[in-house]
Every structure is written in C-alpha cells, then in structure tokens.
C-alpha cells in the first residue's frame, strides 16, 4: 500500500511526531489537533477501517486500545479522562483510509458529537 499516507508514516518516508511504537502499532500526534492531546494510534499493518477487520485482527484491536491507554498515561490525561474515536467510512467522517484510533484529551469533550 505504497500510496497510503499512514503507511508512509509507518515506513518513515513521511515525518510525524512519534509518541509511541511497538511491533504492532505506531502512534503520532495529529497534524491538526482538536484538543490539547490528539494522538493517532495506527496498526503497522494496512487495515482500511474497522469495517475491514477480520477475526484474526481481534487481538490487534485490543493492542491498539492498550497502546491508547499508554499514550493517555504518557500525556498525563489518565486521571482527567479522554476519548477514543474511530471514524469509519463516509458518514463516520473517515478521511484517511488506514485504521486509526484518535486519542483525545486535555479538555472537556462534548456529547453528542457533531
Ligand atoms: P479521520 O478523519 O480519518 O478520522 O482522521 C484522520 C486524521 O489524520 C485527521 O485528524 C487529520 O488531521 C490527520 N492527518 C491527516 N494527514 C496527516 C499527516 O500527514 N500527519 C499527521 N500527523 N496527521 C494527519
Ligand atoms: Zn496504510
């Protein structure tokens, strides 16, 4: 998936402010942050969206969320709280088609979402 923006970040051919990485995921700060903390956690493997997940990816999804928790700790927002968002498809507001978990925090989040 050479043309995928987030695959290029994984491959380090496009720079990003890396926050965390391990054998399965990479995390970096969003280029257009919507909150004081706005970090994206993505699988190294190219998965288009939540809708494309297979049974064998169940562990990967759990790993993605645990990485999100690590980032929350690192960013100091564990106690104040945070929000995980996974936009999926056109109506879900997805704009980059490589699965990513938004980790948002550092301010009070509104509900319902827009
Ligand atoms: P989506 O709308 O697909 O849920 O989220 C995509 C996110 O990727 C957006 O919040 C957008 O700001 C972020 N983004 C798009 N291009 C880049 C980039 O080149 N670098 C970084 N760090 N974030 C990006
Ligand atoms: Zn990709």
Written account of the structure:
By secondary structure, the protein is an alpha+beta fold. It has a five-stranded antiparallel β-sheet, covered by helices on one side. The longest helix has 18 residues, at 58-75. The protein has three helices and five strands, in the order αβββαβαβ. The model has no long low-confidence stretch (mean pLDDT 97). The chain has helices at 5-10, 58-75, 89-92, and strands at residues 18-21, 25-29, 37-43, 82-85, 101-105. Helix content is 25%, strand content 22%. The chain binds guanosine-5'-monophosphate (5GP) and zinc ion. The site of zinc ion has 6 residues, from helix 1.
Give the cofactors and ligands: guanosine-5'-monophosphate, zinc ion
Structural class assignment: alpha+beta
Low-pLDDT residue spans:
none
Report the sheet-strand fraction.
15-25%
CA-atom Rg in angstroms? 14 Å
How many distinct helices? 3
Short description, anyone?
The protein has 114 residues and is α+β, with helices and mostly antiparallel strands. The chain is built from three helices and five strands; from the N terminus they run αβββαβαβ.
Sequence-ordered SSE layout with sheet pairings:
Elements: H1 5-10, E1 18-21, E2 25-29, E3 37-43, H2 58-75, E4 82-85, H3 89-92, E5 101-105
Bound molecules: guanosine-5'-monophosphate (5GP) and zinc ion.
């Amino acid at each position: 998936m050479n043309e995928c923006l987030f695959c290029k970040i994984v491959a380090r051919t496009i720079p990003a402010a890396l926050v965390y990485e391990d054998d399965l995921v990479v995390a970096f700060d969003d280029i257009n942050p919507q909150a004081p903390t706005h970090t994206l956690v993505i699988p190294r493997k190219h998965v288009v969206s939540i809708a494309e997940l297979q049974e064998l990816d169940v562990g990967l999804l759990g790993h993605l969320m645990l990485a999100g928790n690590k980032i929350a700790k690192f960013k100091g927002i564990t106690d104040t709280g945070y929000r995980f968002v996974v936009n999926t498809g056109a109506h879900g507001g997805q704009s980059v088609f490589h699965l990513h978990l938004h980790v948002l925090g550092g301010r009070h989040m509104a509900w319902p979402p827009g």
